[in-house]
Design brief:
Elements: E1 2-5, E2 15-21, E3 28-29, E4 34-39, E5 44-48, E6 53-58, E7 65-67, E8 71-75, H1 91-102, E9 107-110, E10 113-116, E11 123-126, E12 132-135, H2 137-146, H3 164-172, H4 198-213, E13 216-224, H5 234-248, E14 254-257, E15 262-265, E16 271-273, E17 275-277, E18 280-282, E19 285-286, H6 294-310, E20 323-326, E21 346-350, E22 354-359, E23 365-378, H7 384-398
Parallel strand pairs: 16-20, 20-21
Antiparallel strand pairs: 1-8, 2-4, 2-7, 3-6, 4-5, 5-9, 6-8, 9-10, 11-12, 13-23, 14-15, 16-19, 17-18, 21-23, 22-23
Length: 402
């Protein structure tokens, strides 16, 4: 018997939900044929068979959530070695299973793209608070041997990955005396309740993480659009204004690491654009908005809308926003308290446009067309002055007579 464990389908994703099985127990399958589609953080990912053989057991049914590194499929026929058996407890077997989970052969289809699994050997762990931890297998083995809690180790590798040297340093600083954190468990739903699944589950997890970490403050104001010429694309004007705001205050186009109390200013503006769908909220990312023309951005937005509708958006297009835009006003509402998703530090919401009467400089009554704006920022990373200057710059650009 050979056990195939669920590989990391993203950058440190702790789990995935079974969307649809393409095989059943007893089926013969060839290497690289798709076995199952898994729902990750807002993307559906096809997982191919790592080998040819007969399906002996499927670990879970549609709707079940499988942890990364947990058994997914069991094969009966002999073939190339996949992972250690589930009941293996020796350190060497554990290390081998971790490495296999991160170096699965074959391609994983994401939407219309194909990506190769990383061969770095970096594997995620789950802390008691639900926080995802990245660590190379050697660091995990050493941490276990020295009884070091990886949630208290700051990684020096890419994206905060914990390396062997980081564990050694923690041991020198007394980290060997730390006890490991107990795993978190989730209770079964009460009668009449249904588990939240798919995209809505990912949204619930992101919102819980935000509530636990971020110190949010929201500023509200209006932009006067009365001087616009006809034919303006409102979304593109807002995107341009955000780029102008980031130029004035780069600190809002940033990532904040709360554990290390460290701030990273981003060179490019990758704007997350919130899109509503019957399945839940998607936030595809417009890359480098400060250096792209309006037509290219509009084409990109239209493509994202169609891909969200078809549930075909690539996981790569949902990654690494540096700031977010929510156009909730297209439905209803003038002002809101938009929610920041770490590690970003700001989100701008645009409300429903409205018309009001005002007195101009000449004392005449005039009509004004106003756009309500709601800027939420993480007060751990930004000052009120920085946020106010950013918002003022956004308003100034929006009010240009163009």
């Amino acid at each position: 018997m050979k056990i195939f464990k669920l590989p990391d389908l993203g950058e440190g994703l702790p789990d995935a939900e079974i969307h649809e099985w393409y095989v059943k127990e007893g089926d013969e399958i060839k290497a690289d044929e798709n076995m199952v589609s898994m729902e990750t953080a807002k993307a559906v990912v096809d997982v191919p068979a790592p080998r040819s053989g007969k399906i002996a057991k499927l670990y879970g049914k549609s709707g079940d959530v499988i942890n990364t590194g947990a058994p997914l499929v069991e094969f009966t026929d002999a073939g190339e070695e996949e992972t250690a058996s589930p009941d293996a407890t020796a350190t060497a077997s554990e290390t081998k299973a971790d490495a296999n989970a991160a170096t699965v052969a074959g391609a994983i289809e994401v939407g219309n793209r194909v990506i190769k699994e990383s061969a770095t050997g970096i594997t995620p762990t789950q802390s008691g608070s639900g926080q995802r931890i990245k660590a190379v297998p050697a660091a995990r083995v050493l941490a276990k041997r020295l009884n070091i809690d990886l949630t208290r180790v700051i990684g020096s590798g890419a994206a905060g990955t914990i390396r062997l040297a980081d564990v050694e340093q923690a041991a020198k600083q007394g980290g060997a005396t730390l006890a490991p954190t107990a795993p978190q468990t989730r209770s079964a739903p009460k009668a009449g309740y249904e588990p939240v699944r798919g995209v809505r589950r990912a949204m619930a997890q992101a919102m819980s993480e935000s509530h636990a970490q971020v110190v949010p403050v929201t500023l509200n104001d209006d932009a006067n659009l009365s001087h616009w010429i006809s034919g303006n694309d409102i979304t593109l004007r807002v995107i341009r204004a955000i780029a102008a705001g980031c130029k004035t205050e780069p600190g809002l186009n940033a990532h904040y690491d709360g554990a290390a109390n460290a701030l990273k200013l981003n060179d490019t503006i990758n704007l997350g654009l919130a899109m509503d769908s019957p399945d839940g909220l998607f936030v595809p990312v417009l890359k480098d908005i400060g250096n792209r023309d309006g037509k290219t951005l509009r084409d990109n937005i239209n493509r994202y809308k169609q891909e969200v509708k078809d549930r075909a958006i690539a996981q790569d297009d949902l990654r690494d926003p540096t700031l977010t835009l929510s156009n909730f006003g297209m439905f209803a509402g003038r002002y809101a308290n938009p929610v920041i998703v770490p590690p970003t530090v700001a989100i701008l919401g645009t409300g429903r446009l409205y018309t009001t009467a005002a007195i101009n400089a000449e004392g005449e009554a005039v009509q004004q067309r106003l756009m309500p704006l709601s800027l939420t920022f993480d007060h751990r990373a930004c000052t009120g002055g920085e946020a106010a200057r950013f918002l003022a710059s956004v308003i100034k650009d929006l009010e240009l007579a163009e």
